[in-house]
Specification:
single chain; 476 residues; alpha+beta; Aspartate Aminotransferase, domain 2; Aspartate Aminotransferase, domain 1; 4 domains; 7-stranded mixed beta sheet; 4-stranded antiparallel beta sheet; 15 helices; 18 strands; globular; binds pyridoxal-5'-phosphate
Length: 476
């Protein structure tokens, strides 16, 4: 069977006239993207259908399952977001209770909202300096299960946005021992499980469903991802049913062919590409090892802080204890050195690397950090930031489930008047999109102070209806 990509090229070069969607008719010759338009089609004869794949899409999905070691893999064209919604819907009954790591992406919370579920939260430990989350530990999962044995399963994110990995093998044994289902959001770990240089994927460690964004860390178009089904605890038909609901009925063949090409490339070149990335990262870490004020975290740092594992493709550049914030460092890297970071927050900057990076990029970043470092004051371990614990609600501070809060009557109040009121909205920094205020939870004065600080630092707060960030919806 020919590949999707070669079939698209053949179609573009052939004489079949398109009396079908899309409206651009593969005919945008003077456009900068003319080549992409030529390959952009919908389901037509001789091409497969994502929602009932029998040909080239099925073949590519099978290759993905073989590569990562899943029972079945499914293409995601609406990102990991669609995979997370489908996984939660297929795995847990509507209205049920589950255990959720509090540092999950908003998509998991939206899944709970849609399925009217109630969460019992796992709080990842903050490292001793208090600016970064560590791993979720098996004992924490066991403890919550003892308290809430009615929980139908566990949803957690590993690696998290910063590359911190949790011990999935041990956690999955606990979850299965309680008859539950383990879903792992591995959106940031599509490159896991493909080499010895980077961590093992949750797919081969006992998770029942694993969701990966191919576009985040591998060469594939934005919006593409994979849902891996890894056990028979969830029915394949149920996953297909919900993917049919949450994904578009017009999947882009451009998206799907880049997924196919990515899977193909991993199969053939992973043994060369990942060691090369690993060497580039090591050279970079070596080049910046004598920074006086900034610090680039490495695997040793992670081990010393009790993290299970750390994905070294994530470069966490800490400004903690210095006279510069993460956001200020990120702005300087962009304005003065033309280096765009993935994310900046209060005390660090995250640079994401991949097999497609060039040594030149690493060298430019190292040079910039060494130069900026010379002009800084203060050093690591000077003061302890507030920490995100202030946003973690105690049980008595959760008044309603997210779906109950969604339906409740609300009023819009200026921030200053929201202390001790129940939030009707989500609040999160984007990126990383991890909600720190969840509908149905009491808002405290400390939270409002921290939100003010975020505003002052120019961090992007999202989730509220009021774009001016002055008012919040609270439950009446
Ligand atoms: C941990 C995590 N999960 C899921 C998602 C959603 O992924 P996507 O953008 O592919 O829908 C993100 C997005 O940033 C994320 O950080």
């Amino acid at each position: 069977m020919s590949s999707m990509f070669s079939s698209l090229v053949q179609l573009a070069e052939g004489d079949i006239y398109p009396f079908h969607m899309p409206g651009h008719k593969r005919n945008m010759p003077d456009h900068r993207l003319s080549g992409a338009y030529q390959l952009d089609i919908t389901e037509i004869d001789y091409f497969d259908n994502l929602h009932r794949p029998k040909g080239m899409i099925r073949q590519a999905q099978k290759k993905a399952a073989d590569l990562w070691g899943a029972d079945e893999s499914f293409f995601l064209v609406n990102g990991s977001t669609a995979g997370i919604l489908a996984a939660l819907s297929a795995a847990f009954p509507k209205g049920s209770e589950m255990i959720l790591a509090r540092n999950c992406h908003k998509a998991a919370y939206h899944g709970m909202l849609l399925r009217e579920m109630k969460a019992h939260y796992l709080y990842p430990n903050l490292i001793e300096e208090g600016f970064l989350y560590g791993s979720i530990l098996p004992d924490q999962v066991e403890e919550l299960y003892k308290k809430y044995p009615q929980s139908k399963g566990v949803f957690l994110t590993s690696p998290n946005y910063d590359g911190v990995v949790s011990p999935i093998r041990e956690i999955s044994e606990i979850v299965h021992g309680h008859g539950g289902i383990l879903i792992v959001d591995e959106a940031h770990g599509a490159h896991f499980g493909l080499s010895l240089e980077f961590p093992e994927s949750a797919v081969t460690q006992g998770a029942d469903i694993v969701i990966q964004s191919l576009h985040k860390t591998l060469p594939s178009f934005t919006q593409t991802g994979l849902l891996h089904l890894c056990s028979s605890r969830i029915q394949k038909e149920s996953i297909q049913h919900y993917l049919g609901i949450y994904q578009t009925s017009s999947p882009s063949y451009l998206f799907m062919s880049t997924m196919e090409q990515c899977i193909e490339m991993m199969g053939k070149e992973k043994d060369v590409l990942f060691p090369e990335l690993s060497r580039n990262v090591d050279d970079f870490l070596n080049a910046v090892k004598n920074l006086a004020h900034l610090q680039v975290l490495n695997e040793q740092f992670a081990r010393d802080r009790g993290m299970h594992q750390f994905d070294k493709s994530k470069l966490i550049i800490s400004t903690y204890g210095t006279n510069i914030s993460g956001k200020e460092l990120s702005d300087r890297l962009l304005d003065e050195y033309h280096l765009q970071m993935e994310m900046a927050c209060e005390h660090y900057v995250l640079a994401l690397t991949s097999i497609c990076d060039r040594p030149e990029g690493f060298q430019r970043l190292a040079k910039a950090l060494l130069e900026i470092d010379k002009g800084l004051e203060g050093s690591f371990l000077q003061h302890k930031p507030a920490g995100l614990e202030i946003f973690w609600p105690k049980e008595e501070n959760i008044a309603f489930s997210i779906s109950e809060a969604e339906e409740a009557k609300k009023e819009r109040l200026p921030f200053v008047r929201c202390a001790n009121r129940i939030s009707g909205e989500f609040l999160y920094l984007y990126p990383p999109g991890v909600p720190f205020v969840v509908p149905g939870e009491y808002i405290t004065k400390e939270m409002l102070c921290q939100i003010n600080l975020y505003k002052e630092q120019g961090l992007s707060i999202q989730g509220m209806k009021d774009d001016t960030l002055t008012c919040l919806e609270v439950i009446e």
